[in-house]
Task: inverse folding
């Protein structure tokens, strides 16, 4: 599109109150259409589910918006997605965002509260949290720019001893032979400390290489290069549990594994040359579908039916995956997307489909988060909220697929008719709702879309910081 036909729209993440409604498990719903033969699924699957869907998650009562754990969350530097859409779509979004007076809240996590792993007998004092953030300095060939920044928010921290200072570290999985990244010196103000680590020049995905957070109390005059070997100087610790799930008899994935599959590296995608984890590819491909839908609407205004057909083919390439298109597009239609990226669709058509669709695959790992040893009630609650949002997004993308199939099979003369325009407008609205979120005129808020899911999945990787005493720090692994 030329400069007169496109705008860059920056959309931050939004949230909504669930109103205490029951959370729905993500279920595999097979669309009706032929597809190619499928092989065994080498990715994580729920062992007891033969139908391809996820086992129902035990409902956890909540009235919090998607991703919100309470007040006092991180002062986010959100990665604002740039969406290129047609003027008609931009205008509709502006109307929704301005006239609706949306209450766009950051995804928050409570600070200075108590939390516990599911099933734990007693709570642990939580004095703060560590958040992974994304700078957005990404490209499709690496995991860089995703979870490449860290924010630390602590409270109830006593002053260090005279001549001492607190130092914050990010460490790799094994505390015995761990690699450490100095995040910085903590500055206290009335017992609270906030630290933002902007990452390294390479925008390294920190979640891919680290899972532990440590605060040491050391000489204030000399900045250490590694944490003190004297564990009596260790003051606070946070760890993403890496205990294999005993219910996962095939892969033995841990909570850390599931988070990394979502936000850093998924083995199935890695084999296809798609780094960065599942979440970023759902986000990217959902954004492209919205872009192509808006472009098709502009093409209708210009009478460019050939270009419209090409946009519909692209949309179906990303929804189905190019290996599962079947008869969704006319025979002989060219592949109009990067065939490397287009191998994985958003939707799932067979329980053992390989590669699995993004929505289904993400749902599987959300179930894994809930089942993993050491997952907190807040993580379980958030995973179920994301699952509910995935259900809604999946329904929208299935509707988009049906509309795109109708449109791509229309002749040029049929596409010029008002009926085709009405169907196209519906498709554009559905693509907008799926990615940006659906505007609820009764509440004046956005219901959850891919953008909200994207930020909420990032919130799953929050670490709870707890105090250490000398005896416990000497035995922490």
Result:
């Amino acid at each position: 599109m030329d400069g007169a036909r496109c705008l860059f729209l920056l959309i931050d993440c939004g949230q909504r109150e669930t109103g205490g409604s029951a959370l729905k498990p993500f279920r595999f719903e097979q669309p009706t259409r032929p597809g190619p033969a499928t092989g065994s699924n080498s990715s994580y699957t729920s062992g007891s589910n033969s139908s391809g869907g996820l086992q129902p998650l035990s409902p956890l009562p909540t009235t919090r918006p998607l991703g919100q754990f309470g007040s006092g969350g991180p002062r986010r530097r959100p990665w604002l997605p740039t969406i290129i859409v047609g003027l008609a779509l931009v205008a509709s979004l502006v109307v929704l965002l301005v006239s609706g007076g949306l209450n766009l809240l950051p995804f928050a996590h409570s600070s200075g509260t108590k939390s516990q792993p599911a099933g734990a007998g007693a709570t642990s004092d939580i004095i703060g949290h560590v958040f992974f953030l994304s700078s957005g300095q990404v490209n499709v060939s690496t995991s860089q720019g995703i979870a490449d920044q860290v924010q630390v928010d602590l409270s109830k921290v006593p002053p260090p001893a005279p001549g001492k200072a607190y130092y914050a570290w990010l460490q790799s999985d094994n505390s015995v032979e761990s690699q450490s990244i100095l995040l910085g010196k903590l500055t206290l103000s009335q017992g609270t400390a906030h630290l933002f680590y902007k990452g390294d020049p390479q925008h390294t995905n920190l979640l891919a290489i680290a899972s532990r957070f440590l605060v040491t109390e050391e000489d204030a005059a000399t900045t250490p290069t590694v944490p003190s070997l004297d564990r009596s100087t260790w003051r606070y610790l946070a760890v993403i549990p890496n205990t294999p799930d005993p219910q996962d008899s095939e892969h033995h994935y841990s909570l850390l594994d599931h988070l990394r599959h979502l936000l850093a590296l998924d083995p199935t995608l890695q084999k296809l040359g798609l780094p960065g984890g599942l979440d970023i590819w759902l986000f990217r491909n959902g954004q492209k579908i919205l872009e192509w839908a808006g472009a098709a609407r502009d093409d209708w205004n210009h009478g460019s039916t050939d270009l419209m057909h090409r946009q519909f083919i692209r949309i179906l390439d990303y929804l189905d995956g190019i290996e599962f298109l079947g008869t969704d597009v006319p025979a002989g239609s060219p592949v109009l997307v990067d065939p490397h990226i287009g191998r994985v669709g958003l939707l799932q058509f067979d329980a053992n489909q390989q590669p699995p669709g993004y929505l289904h695959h993400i749902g599987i790992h959300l179930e894994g988060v809930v089942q993993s040893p050491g997952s907190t009630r807040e993580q379980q609650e958030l995973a179920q909220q994301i699952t509910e949002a995935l259900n809604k997004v999946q329904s929208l993308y299935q509707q988009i697929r049906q509309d795109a199939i109708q449109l791509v099979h229309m002749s040029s003369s049929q596409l010029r008719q008002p009926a085709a325009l009405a169907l196209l407008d519906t498709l554009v609205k559905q693509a907008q709702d799926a990615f940006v979120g659906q505007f609820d005129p009764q509440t004046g808020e956005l219901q959850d879309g891919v953008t909200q899911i994207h930020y909420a999945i990032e919130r799953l990787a929050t670490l709870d910081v707890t105090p250490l005493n000398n005896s416990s720090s000497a035995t922490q692994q």
Notes: The mean pLDDT is 80. The chain has one domain: 7-473.
